[in-house]
Amino acid sequence: MAQQNAHRRNRARPPKTTGTDPRAIATTIVDAVCEAHTPLAYALEEVAPAAGRLEPRDAALARAIARVTVRRRGDIDWCLSQLMTKKLPRKANEVRAVLRMSAAQLLFMRQADHAAVNTAVALLKSKPGGAGFAGLANAVLRRMVRERDSLLATLPLEANTPAWLWSRWVASWGADAAAALAAIHREEPTLDLAFAGPDVPRPEGSVALPTGGARLPASDVTAIDGYGEGGWWVQDAAAQLPALVVGDVAGKRVLDMCAAPGGKTMQLAAAGATVTAMEIDPDRAERLRENLARTRLSDRVEVVVADAMDAEGSFDAVLLDAPCSATGTLRRQPDVAFSKSEKDIGLLAHLQKNLLRRAAECVAPGGILVYATCSIEPDEGERQVEFARSALPSLALAPIPEGAASPFVTAEGVMRTLPSMSIGGERGLDGFFAARFQRTA
Ligand SMILES: C[S@@+](CC[C@H](N)C(=O)[O-])C[C@H]1O[C@@H](n2cnc3c(N)ncnc32)[C@H](O)[C@@H]1O
Q1: What is the ipTM of this complex?
Q2: Is the CB–ligand 1 distance for residue 266 below 6 Å?
Q3: Active-site positions, per UniProt (predicted)?
Q4: CA 48 and chain centroid, separation
């Protein structure tokens, strides 16, 4: 699978951490993500041991700088391009990483200017091949401090999005919607939780979501009360909707075809279904098992490590949460914007069609099939319904049950969320698509 191979490739290149200065560690993460396409979450995780040698405050600073740099990468590159007459040599990865993470502090964080500039210069002097760029970095960053206000005032809204993606958003959703997407992608997302039942205590200070979940300001998950008790898990508000779109699953046999890390499997099991959870990637299947054990839902779930293309059986309901471009999750995974290409969309849409065809064969007559993706590309959502209509005559589009998904049901009868929308009055949620079919023959 394209997505999985990319994941494996990236896992083979953990960032090499050097030094214990928070900005040196931030540079390492930025380099790994922006140059080697290591997923941000993985790079942050792998750097944790190095960050562990730091004071907690410094470790938090390293991660915060790295996160802001990756979130605002396009904006930062645009600002740097205004101040540099020549591009850096292609191979000057570390120099680029130092400049980007220093610019993040100067432009978007309340860090002392002198600390950001001086550390950049010192870091470059300490790197092989870096000393020759120390003067340039000093001049560019000092100019950035002087011209910060005008740079920020003239920063184009589309600067933070790769051009191919921006064009597709404008074509699919219109210029205003594309602008709203770009604006929300610049913000740190909230932390959304899903619960194993209505009686699990909700964390203090959280806001109830219409999904039954709750929202908190971004924070360290393990610090929230009840983490060890396993009554809840982290799941974006929009990601909680597809399992609800399946409908009442109590006592039913449900196939979750692409299941890890298991958010939707846990929702289905907690709602009383007996779930067969398929996952092709053994490492991710292991995470799914750990999540089920932590939430004490293992008894209701059989985990099968296999290719969903080989799925067989006749289930009351099938959930196909298909591998996709994940362009609906850019608030949470800003690196995805730069690690995907236009070609990926076509490849993934093809794979999704094959999985949808297989999924249709695993639904019992009269049963329900929900197709979902966390993509804002119509090719991975709305157009898959057109495909089903023309190629899968056993399926008929079925109404989405009244509930948390209702405000997002379109005139065509499918569910579409965009990250710039609100849920229950709360701004921001992942971009998701879900269509509900019934097997009629
Ligand atoms: C969008 S994620 C699923 C998220 C999951 N449903 C949840 O709610 O936590 C897609 C998953 O499908 C897996 N996958 C990709 N291709 C697959 C295939 N052919 N068969 C089974 N799983 C596959 C990926 O490894 C990934 O874990």
Answers
A1: 0.99
A2: no
A3: 374
A4: 20
